Structure formats: C-alpha cells, structure tokens
Amino acid sequence: MSREQRAMIDAMVRQPRPEGPQSVEEIRAGFRELMAGMRVPDGIRTTATTLGPRPALLVEPAGGAVADTATLLYFHGGAFVFGSPETALSLTGNLVARTGFRALSLDYRLAPEHPFPAAVEDAVSAYRALLDSGLDPSAIAFAGDSAGGGLAITTCLAAREAGLPMPAAIVAFSAGLDATRTGESMTTKAGIDPFFTRESLEHTGAMYRAGQDPRHPLLSPAVLADPTGLPPMLLQVGTNEVLLDDSTRMAARATAAGVDVVLDITADVPHVFQSFAGVLDEADEALDRAALFLTQRVRAAKADQES
Fold first, then answer.
1. Rounded CA gap, 157 and 208, in Å?
2. Nearest by Cα to 18 from 29, 26, 7
3. How far apart are CA 63 and CA 299, in angstroms?
4. How far is CA 44 from CA 40, 52, 94, 95, 100, in A?
5. Closest among 148, 137, 144 to 171, alpha carbons compared
6. Is residue 301's pLDDT more than 60?
7. 34-306 architecture in CATH?
8. Which of 5, 91, 92, 142 could bond 152 through an S-S bridge, CB–CB 3.0 to 4.6 Å?
9. pLDDT tens digits for 229-282?
10. Tens of pLDDT, residues 159-173
11. What is the DSSP string of the chain?
12. Which residues are catalytic?
C-alpha cells in the first residue's frame, strides 16, 4: 500500500469546487472533465453499438481474443444524472484487459429528463437483449460503479421479478444502495469523504426520485430489498466514503438471505478508487481481485452447466 499515493489522490479530488448546487449541465461537464483524466489501459478496442433500445459501448481485447462469450454488462456511475460509457472507460477497459471478457457498457437514460425507474427499465431491457441473442446467463456478469453498482443489483432484482434467469455474478464498486441515506457512515464519514456530502447526494437523488418514496426496494435495496436468489456478489468500497454502509449493509442483508458475498473494503481511499488504476496501487490491486472473482464465477457457472 502507498500512503503517499493515497494522500496525493485525496488532495487532488479535494480541489475547490463551485459553491452551492450546480445545474445539471455543470455537473455533467465537470464529471466528464474529471474522468477524462483517468488512465485507459492499452490493449482494448471500443465500438459504438446498441443493446435493446439503448446505445452502448462495446469494449473488447484489441487482439480479438475474447474468452468464449463471457460478457460483462456494465453500468456507469453518475448518480443517475450524469456519466456515460465513455466516462467509465477506465473501469470497463481495465476489467476487459484483466479478464479477457468483452464488456457492453450501457448508455441508460438519465434523470432529471428520465427519472426512476427509467434506468432500471433500460438495464433489464439490455439484459433481456443479451439473453435473446443466445447468450447463456452463466456467461454474463453485471458490473458497475457508484449508481451503476447499485443498478447492477437492482437490475437483478427487477429481472428476477420479470422471471428472467440470474447472471453468473455481480461486481459493484462503491455502490449507491440506500436512497434513505440512513447509514451511519453518512455521518461518521462526513468531511472525510472528499467527493460527497449529504446535501450533494440529496441534490442529485431528488432528480432521480422525482418525488417517489426513497423507501422503494429498487431505490434502497441495502435496507429494503429481498436479495434471495441473487447471484454471488463482490462489493468493493473504501473507508473514506459516506456510502460505505451502503455496501456493508447490503452485504449483511444478502448474506442473511443465503447469497454468496465478498465484502472487500480498502482503507483510506475515496469513492470508486478503482478509477485511479495506474496511479494508485490499491486501485490496481482491487481490479485484480475483481477480475479474479469474475473469471472464477463466470467460468465455474459454465462448467457447472456442462457437467
């Protein structure tokens, strides 16, 4: 571990920001600028495509050596208000480079133009399109960061209710899983988290909810959803996050429901620290663990089906 690297990242992301609530356009532009500075690995290629009714970005190994038909359905972060497959490319690219899988990063509809449950509907439609293309669910894993990490889990919940089979695994980086904001870390990590405050989360959260009750299970699965039957999940999170308890409570809830869970907590790192791969040792190590989890689960699921 590198204290110097962690301190450098913390100082970088604490750069002064405009005071007061920002407009949607300002938030989106600022996030694009931030994520444009993240390192995208060599050895991948990208192609614009569609998945169901929505655009998507196909990310593949540049050499074309895709491991069978193993597919990551990826959901980008951005509080359901900002972000895109392009802003998540450092994450999808690193997962593809480390696993040899292909990734389809979904450009789901964003609030406030398209509030809840538009993102969940788009994600389920994308998963259904993968199944309709002939892919076996054991060859598919869901992954996502921040809001997209939460979407990876809520898409499974919605797919289960629609009678669809579960994918092989879920990987969620710093997942947003509680719109009620009742986790203790919302208070204990206030000021320690370099990105978020309760107020900033409420600003974008209100856009996504559009007046709907935050106690809906698809808005707050960490405290209200029934995770019975969900696939094995890896939840990675940092200790410097107000959303830390979203992951710890989701892990406890899923474990109690009989779901295989790996809760992977890294000390003194910020929200979606995996984005800093190539700069922060802990980011690369976390992505290595995520890749190992994915290759074990996806391949094991296929092998089980064949036996």
1. 19
2. 26
3. 21
4. 9, 23, 9, 10, 10
5. 144
6. no
7. 3-Layer(aba) Sandwich (3.40)
8. 142
9. 999 999 999 999 999 999 999 999 999 999 999 999 999 999 999 999 999 999
10. 999 999 999 999 999
11. --HHHHHHHHHHHTS---SSPPPHHHHHHHHHHHHHTSPPPSSEEEEEEEETTEEEEEEEETT----TT-EEEEE--STTTS--TTTTHHHHHHHHHHH--EEEEE----TTTS-TTHHHHHHHHHHHHHHHTT--GGGEEEEEETHHHHHHHHHHHHHHHTTPPP-SEEEEES----TT---THHHHTTTT-SS--HHHHHHHHHHHHTT--TTSTTT-HHHH---TTPPPEEEEEETT-TTHHHHHHHHHHHHHTT--EEEEEETT--TTGGGGTTT-HHHHHHHHHHHHHHHHHHHHHHHHHH-
12. 146, 241, 271
Nearest alpha carbon to residue 94 among 170, 145, 51, 48: 145
As a whole number of angstroms, the distance between CA 91 and CA 252 comes to 26
Cα separations in angstroms, 12 against 194, 195, 200: 9, 11, 19
- DSSP letters along 207-275, please? HHHTT--TTSTTT-HHHH---TTPPPEEEEEETT-TTHHHHHHHHHHHHHTT--EEEEEETT--TTGGG
Tokens of 99: 């696993």
Q: What letter represents residue 11's amino acid?
A: A
**Which residue, 103, 29, 50, is CA-closest to 287?**
103
Are the C-beta atoms of 249 and 178 separated by less than 8 Å?
Answer: yes
> 285 CB contacts (<8 Å, ≥6 apart)?
none
Q: Which residues pair with 61 in a beta bridge?
A: 44
Whole-model pTM? 0.93
DSSP strand pairing (102-106 vs 54-61): antiparallel
Position 112, amino acid: P
In the block, tokens 């060599």 appear at 42
Scan for tokens 């909810």, then name that residue: 209
Place of tokens 């309760």: 198
Q: Token pair of 44, please?
A: 């991948």
